[in-house]
């Protein structure tokens, strides 16, 4: 079943209209131009070859607009299909612990989803240059930024894009960097090759790329006159990197975090983390043991929480494979959404 077919159609028509408007405008100005996409933090979208603004040409030497893929491989049955997440209070039977956070009375309509813009960026310079996607809410932009770290399948994977898009639907500006420099783990590769592939991904280089992405977002917000701190989300491999990022950051740039079933997490630097972390996982996930998460919760403190979904395995929240997993994925998304709302908007 296609993902939000009417939304896809409307986005396509909007893009054509936008392209024609840009072309007409450029013909009246100059043969070369730079499309400057505002993150919804300042004024409307502008076209400029020299003016300094968000996503300026000096920071983003190459970019191209893109439409969300029409081949979405899953569709959250009720919530995500309409991009309308309604708060549901669970009986707590499926979770090891309930998270107390504000119930956000936000009903994001289809029209709001139509006004999520996406752009592919090239950020950083020289050896620090990396590719990234930026999803930004237009209609209901709340002025908050979120860095999303992907799983091993990379930033171009449809599941990661889908999730980032849904977060943007709720008012956020979401940056998804390419953590693997164009070399993600490909589906279908022989499993014995995985450790060899993983060893080829230098963790220090990954950390530097995340730092580049963080600096880019901070600079863009500062240019817009906004001093809000960022949120960070990670899945699997990215969920493990969330710990490293927060330990190095020590509250300088990030004010809250969500780690979905993080893998290969080292508890050693956890004591340096200064912000609350929401850990979400399943009790049938050998890659993210519950005992490890409980240890992190105690070490980090600061209001951190662990939420365990019974009977769920790895990646259920952003790659649900059944009707039952769909329901828990919606629940997990709602928990994350309210956690971000409290950390980035209420308590910022």
From TrEMBL:
It holds the Pfam family DLH. It comes from the Eukaryota. Residues 130-341 form the Dienelactone hydrolase domain. GO terms for cellular component: chloroplast; cytosol. Signal peptide: none annotated. InterPro entries: AB_hydrolase_fold, CMBL, Dienelactn_hydro. One of its GO terms (molecular function) is hydrolase activity. Its main location: cytoplasm. Keywords: Cytoplasm, Hydrolase. It is found in: Cytoplasm, Cytosol. PANTHER family: CARBOXYMETHYLENEBUTENOLIDASE HOMOLOG (PTHR46812). Belongs to the dienelactone hydrolase family. This is Carboxymethylenebutenolidase homolog. It comes from Gossypium darwinii.
């Amino acid at each position: 079943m296609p993902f939000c077919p009417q939304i896809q159609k409307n986005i396509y028509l909007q893009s054509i209209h936008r392209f024609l408007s840009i072309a007409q405008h450029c013909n009246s100005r100059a043969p070369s131009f730079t499309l400057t996409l505002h993150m919804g933090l300042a004024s409307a979208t502008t076209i400029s070859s020299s003016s300094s603004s968000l996503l300026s040409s000096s920071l983003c030497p190459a970019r191209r607009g893109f439409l969300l893929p029409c081949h979405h491989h899953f569709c959250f049955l009720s919530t995500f299909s309409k991009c309308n997440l309604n708060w549901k209070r669970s009986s707590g039977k499926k979770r090891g612990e309930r998270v107390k956070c504000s119930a956000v009375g936000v009903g994001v309509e289809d029209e709001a989803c139509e006004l999520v813009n996406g752009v592919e960026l090239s950020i950083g310079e020289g050896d620090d240059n990396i590719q990234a996607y930026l999803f930004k809410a237009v209609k209901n932009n709340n002025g908050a930024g979120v860095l999303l770290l992907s799983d091993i399948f990379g930033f171009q994977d449809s599941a990661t894009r889908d999730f980032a898009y849904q977060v943007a639907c709720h008012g956020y500006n979401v940056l998804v960097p390419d953590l693997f420099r164009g070399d993600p783990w490909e589906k279908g590769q022989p499993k014995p090759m995985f450790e060899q592939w993983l060893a080829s991904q230098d963790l220090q280089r990954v950390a530097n790329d995340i730092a580049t992405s963080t600096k880019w977002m901070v600079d863009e917000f500062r240019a817009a006159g906004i001093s809000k701190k960022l949120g960070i989300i990670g899945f699997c491999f990215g969920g493990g990197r969330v710990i490293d990022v927060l330990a190095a950051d020590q509250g300088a740039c990030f004010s809250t975090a969500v780690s979905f079933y993080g893998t290969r997490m080292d508890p050693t630097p956890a004591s340096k983390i200064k912000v609350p972390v929401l850990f979400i996982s399943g009790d049938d996930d050998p890659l993210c043991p519950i005992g490890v998460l409980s240890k992190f919760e105690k070490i980090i403190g600061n209001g951190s929480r662990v939420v365990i979904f019974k009977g769920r395995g790895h990646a259920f929240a952003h790659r649900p494979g059944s009707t039952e997993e769909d329901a828990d994925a919606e629940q997990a998304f709602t928990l994350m959404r309210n956690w971000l709302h409290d950390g980035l908007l209420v308590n910022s």
